[in-house]
């Protein structure tokens, strides 16, 4: 049984319509699943939740999200994952993307950026200047801006692991693509660059330019190491002990072989306990009209010579569907985001289960107990949306699983284009 309800809280009227799924109906109509059950769904009308971050406020668990097709950021109460409540919507400027969010040490960083026509922007109308915004979460439901930093070309998926530095994927004047930039926010009202790194070929003045290299982000920081998904320049490991003198110590170049070359490495999450990194490209073209995308495991036991040792199995069509089901049905099919915000103590630490969204392939969970032979352990395909919240996907209004965040309580949150947030539980042996 599925019921819809609106709730209220001390913070005011709760904006989200939350779908509550009874235990007797672990999979809603139109969805398909293996070893996963649905325990909740927040439709979030008037919003399009995308990237997610968590904060604990006493006994309350709060989720802050960026938004895909809406200009601003949302705050949800996810204390009870079966009854998610949308508490606040923080308005962002019109005609400007508000796609980024990360949280640590009671601070939130977000970003403003130009919004292209393809994503719903109107180039004939004004937009806000690009900026990384720094917020205090001293009052969790009333974030207060305490600083901002501009790069001259906008940013993409930025990371903040707490403490002194932000780690940005920055568009900087004089470069072909986004580069790794470390910014000191010891005084958040006056951020200053501490260092930057770009592989050879990214500077416009380089004799042999590398036009398809760009840092997607976020940089994953482990001690004095940064693990960088650098698009066409590959998977790069850098020593950041001295931010003013960042040194590349290892690289695995995936080049034009996989996916769109500028995103042939989209995400890279190190699993240092096992000398592994989980690396993937991003599908961009709809209906598989591009080079093969990949997701797999890189051996980093020798940081100077990372090597690909396994690919994850390609998602297979559900029973009864044709072999070309995912490519033919519309939208993107291929890997996108992992359970990445490993610095957050509320986020499940990387272990032998890897969580990865695959756009119209839904959420996929892989068991990497045997690294050279990873196995698919579970998957979830949501029902297709019934109304458009934005212009994508273009080929058909189908489900597009975007981002995934797994908390330490075992709740799996998955955001989608043209839908809200599905909450899942793994029912498999692991």
Write a structural description.
Helix content is 1%, strand content 39%. The chain is mostly beta strands and 430 residues long. Strand 16 and strand 17 (179-184) form a beta hairpin. It has a single domain (2-426), classed as Methylamine Dehydrogenase, Chain H (7 Propeller). The strands form eight sheets. The chain has a six-stranded antiparallel beta sheet, with no helix packed on it.
Care to give the gist of this entry?
The chain has one helix at residues 325-328; strands at 2-5, 8-9, 12-13, 18-21, 32-34, 36-42, 49-57, 60-67, 72-77, 85-91, 96-97, 101-104, 107-114, 131-136, 144-149, 165-170, 179-184, 192-197, 220-222, 225-229, 235-239, 247-252, 267-271, 276-280, 295-299, 307-311, 353-357, 363-367, 375-381, 401-406, 412-416, 421-426. The protein is mainly β and 430 residues long. The protein is globular, with a radius of gyration of 20 Å.
Topology of helices and strands:
Elements: E1 2-5, E2 8-9, E3 12-13, E4 18-21, E5 32-34, E6 36-42, E7 49-57, E8 60-67, E9 72-77, E10 85-91, E11 96-97, E12 101-104, E13 107-114, E14 131-136, E15 144-149, E16 165-170, E17 179-184, E18 192-197, E19 220-222, E20 225-229, E21 235-239, E22 247-252, E23 267-271, E24 276-280, E25 295-299, E26 307-311, H1 325-328, E27 353-357, E28 363-367, E29 375-381, E30 401-406, E31 412-416, E32 421-426
Antiparallel strand pairs: 1-4, 2-3, 4-6, 5-29, 6-32, 7-8, 8-9, 9-10, 11-13, 12-13, 13-14, 14-15, 16-17, 17-18, 19-20, 20-21, 21-22, 23-24, 24-25, 25-26, 27-28, 28-29, 30-31, 31-32
């Amino acid at each position: 049984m599925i019921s819809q309800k609106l709730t209220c809280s001390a913070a005011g009227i709760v904006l989200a319509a939350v779908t509550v799924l009874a235990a007797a109906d672990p999979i809603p109509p139109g969805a398909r699943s293996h070893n996963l059950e649905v325990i909740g769904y927040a439709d979030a009308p008037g919003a399009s939740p995308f990237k997610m971050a968590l904060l604990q406020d006493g006994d309350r668990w709060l989720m802050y999200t960026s938004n895909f097709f809406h200009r601003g950021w949302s705050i949800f109460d996810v204390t009870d994952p079966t009854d998610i409540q949308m508490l606040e919507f923080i308005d962002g400027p019109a005609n400007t993307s508000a796609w980024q969010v990360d949280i640590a040490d009671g601070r939130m960083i977000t970003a403003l950026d130009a919004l292209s026509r393809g994503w719903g922007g109107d180039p004939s109308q004004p937009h806000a200047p690009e900026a990384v915004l720094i917020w205090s979460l001293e009052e969790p439901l009333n974030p207060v801006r305490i600083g901002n930093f501009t790069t001259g070309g906008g940013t993409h998926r930025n990371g903040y692991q707490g403490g002194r530095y932000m780690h940005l994927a920055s568009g900087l004047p004089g470069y072909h693509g986004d580069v790794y930039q470390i910014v000191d926010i010891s005084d958040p009202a006056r951020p200053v660059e501490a260092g930057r790194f770009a592989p050879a070929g990214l500077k416009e003045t380089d004799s042999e330019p590398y036009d398809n290299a760009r840092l997607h982000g976020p940089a994953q920081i482990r001690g004095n190491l940064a693990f960088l998904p650098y698009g066409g320049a590959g998977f790069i490991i850098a020593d950041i002990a001295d931010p003013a003198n960042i040194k590349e110590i290892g690289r695995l170049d995936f080049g034009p072989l996989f996916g769109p070359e500028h995103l042939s490495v989209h995400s890279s999450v190190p699993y240092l306990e096992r000398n592994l990194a989980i690396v993937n490209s991003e599908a961009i073209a709809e209906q598989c009209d591009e080079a093969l995308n990949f997701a797999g495991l890189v051996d980093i036991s020798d940081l100077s010579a990372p090597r690909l040792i396994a690919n994850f199995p390609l998602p297979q069509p559900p029973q009864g569907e044709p072999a070309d089901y995912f490519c033919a049905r519309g939208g993107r099919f291929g890997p996108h985001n992992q359970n990445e915000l490993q610095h957050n103590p509320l986020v499940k630490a990387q272990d032998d289960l890897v969580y990865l969204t695959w756009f119209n392939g839904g959420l996929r969970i892989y068991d990497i107990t045997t690294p050279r032979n990873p196995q698919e352990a579970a998957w979830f395909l949501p029902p297709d949306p019934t109304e458009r919240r934005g212009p994508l996907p273009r080929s058909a209004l189908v489900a597009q699983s975007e981002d995934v965040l797994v908390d330490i309580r075992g709740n799996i949150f998955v955001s989608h284009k043209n839908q809200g947030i599905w909450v899942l539980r793994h029912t498999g042996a692991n």
